[in-house]
């Protein structure tokens, strides 16, 4: 819930209109309830299962202005889906940024028959009067990524079996990609299982068997038919995944999350992973809610998590038509009453207020006039003092500038004298030192030069060397580099061969550090 909602609403109530169960949440606590009641301080959330809406992906030109997108999508949806023009369907959309091209924008579009909303949610509205959010069930999964319960950007499949529906949903790079209703809800599983078994079991007993025994049922006949049943289910799932890969350019699925509203089914994820060949995990997340040890359906917890998200973090795709009444001041009747009350108050208060304000202004003017006279005298005195101080400051600054210039000139002269005395290299001594090294390695000195840059900071000796072998020159360079690296930086870029003199030439530079 956003900060504004946290301030406005003390609780969240989630409603499953298909099963008729409820959960109430306060801060980080969720509990089931059988008797919800209307309250202005609660935020009501519900969902649309995948059978309750039509989903399609629509592309439109990027040249269409944002203000006209809804109309353009509505027109195209009626045409593409061949909807009855006499029915005013509820149409909502969210952008699919990963599908966009240079010329088109794509949108996930959800279409709901108005009768669906009236019929499915009548029981909810009878209990709590309004519903703030009705969200397509696949979009609730966005909260798993926002709250980092899933922190990767892989391609994920979600499969969840409910009593009256089952949905298959894909998220890619943490964005909704595709959703479809599957054949096998828990009721349809139960009916098919009884058909395979050849006898009738209660739905409650079937669900308890799934949760308590998993796919390894104690009864051999039960286990055999469960394996057969789920083989049919995953064959259907495989067909859906194959279609999704082809239609949405998906190379591979990274992970599957699978679960049921009845509870965790032991062995279901392993069977799915074996059958589909994709890493499979239970659809059973730790949302951080305190349930006091009771099992709360994953969809209820997702609704509470979704209701706590900031508006910019969730998909705004709200199908509710059961809005809470606006505040009194925003209703037409309330505005009329407030305007009448304000008009009457103004008519009665205006003369008295006008006289009072006039008297206050006269009194205030007299006080300010007296204060102005005192402040003006003080201002003139302070201006004279400031002007005198500024004149003294300018005279002192001029003297300081003259002394600073004189000091800088003397300082520069002394620095130059010191540099000449201390840092000036003794060229004869240096040349003698280098000549010993040249003789030691049988390298002849052909030429020598000394240079300084304009600032006198870069002092360089350049020696023209000659030797009958390159090994003498390279050995000399290694010796000098090792022995005098603390005093000089040496460089010898090229050793060339003089055909006439039958000797090798090189130019060695030694820069004094």
Describe this protein's structure.
By secondary structure, the protein is an alpha+beta fold. The protein is 44% helix and 23% strand. It contains 13 helices and 18 strands. It has helices at residues 3-8, 69-80, 114-120, 122-128, 142-146, 186-197, 203-213, 220-247, 268-276, 298-307, 332-423, 427-440, 470-484, and strands spanning 11-16, 21-26, 29-33, 42-48, 54-61, 90-95, 104-112, 133-136, 155-161, 166-172, 175-181, 255-260, 280-282, 444-452, 459-467, 488-491, 495-498, 503-512. The strands form 4 sheets. A 5-stranded mixed β-sheet has the order 3-2-1-4-8, with helices on one face. A 5-stranded mixed β-sheet has the order 11-10-9-12-13, covered by helices on one side. Strands 14, 15, 16, 17 and 18 form a 5-stranded antiparallel β-sheet that branches. A hairpin with a 4-residue loop joins strand 1 (11-16) and strand 2 (21-26). Helix 6 (186-197) packs across helix 8. The two termini are 67 Å apart. The model is unreliable at 1-7 (pLDDT under 50).
């Amino acid at each position: 819930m956003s900060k504004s909602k946290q301030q406005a609403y003390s609780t969240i109530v989630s409603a499953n209109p298909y099963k008729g169960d409820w959960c109430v949440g306060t801060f980080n606590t969720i509990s089931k309830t059988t008797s919800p009641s209307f309250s202005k301080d609660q935020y009501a959330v519900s969902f649309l299962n995948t059978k309750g809406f039509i989903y399609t992906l629509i592309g439109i030109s990027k040249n269409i202005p944002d203000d006209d997108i809804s109309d353009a999508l509505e027109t195209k949806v009626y045409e593409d889906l061949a909807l009855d023009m006499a029915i005013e369907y509820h149409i909502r959309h969210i952008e699919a940024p990963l599908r966009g091209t240079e010329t088109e924008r794509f949108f996930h579009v959800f279409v709901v028959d108005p009768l669906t909303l009236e019929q499915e949610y009548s029981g909810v509205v009878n209990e709590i009067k309004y519903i703030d959010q009705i969200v397509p069930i696949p979009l609730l999964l966005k909260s798993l990524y926002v709250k980092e319960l899933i922190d990767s950007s892989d391609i994920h499949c979600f499969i969840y079996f409910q009593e009256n529906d089952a949905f298959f949903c894909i998220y890619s790079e943490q964005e909704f990609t595709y959703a479809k209703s599957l054949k096998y809800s828990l009721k349809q599983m139960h009916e098919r299982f009884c058909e395979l078994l050849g006898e009738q079991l209660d739905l409650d007993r079937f669900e308890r068997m799934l949760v308590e025994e998993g796919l390894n049922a104690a009864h051999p006949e039960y286990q055999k038919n469960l394996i057969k049943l789920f083989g049919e289910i995953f064959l259907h799932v495989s067909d859906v995944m194959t279609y999704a890969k082809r239609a949405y350019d998906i190379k591979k699925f990274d992970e599957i999350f699978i679960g049921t509203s009845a509870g965790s089914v032991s062995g279901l994820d392993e069977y799915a992973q074996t059958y589909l060949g994709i890493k499979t995990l239970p659809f059973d997340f730790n949302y951080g809610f305190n349930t006091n040890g009771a099992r709360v359906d994953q969809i209820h917890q997702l609704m509470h998590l979704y209701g706590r998200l900031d508006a910019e973090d969730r998909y705004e795709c709200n199908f509710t038509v059961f809005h809470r009444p606006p505040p009194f001041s925003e209703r037409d009747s309330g505005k009329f009453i407030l305007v009448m009350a304000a008009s009457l108050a103004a008519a009665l208060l205006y003369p008295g207020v006008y006289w009072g304000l006039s008297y206050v202004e006269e009194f205030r003017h007299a006080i300010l006039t007296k204060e102005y006279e005192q402040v003006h005298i003080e201002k003139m005195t302070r201006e004279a003092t400031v002007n005198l101080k500024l004149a003294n400051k300018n005279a002192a600054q001029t003297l300081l500038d003259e002394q600073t210039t004189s000091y800088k000139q003397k300082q520069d002269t002394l620095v130059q004298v010191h540099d000449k005395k201390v840092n000036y290299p003794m060229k004869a001594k240096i040349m003698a030192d280098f000549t010993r090294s040249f003789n030691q390695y049988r390298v002849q000195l052909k030429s020598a030069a000394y240079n300084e840059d304009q600032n006198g900071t870069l002092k360089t000796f350049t020696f023209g060397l000659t030797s009958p072998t390159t090994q003498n020159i390279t050995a000399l360079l290694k010796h000098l580099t090792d022995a005098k690296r603390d005093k000089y930086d040496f460089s010898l870029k090229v050793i060339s061969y003089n055909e006439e003199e039958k000797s090798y030439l090189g130019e060695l530079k030694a820069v004094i550090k």
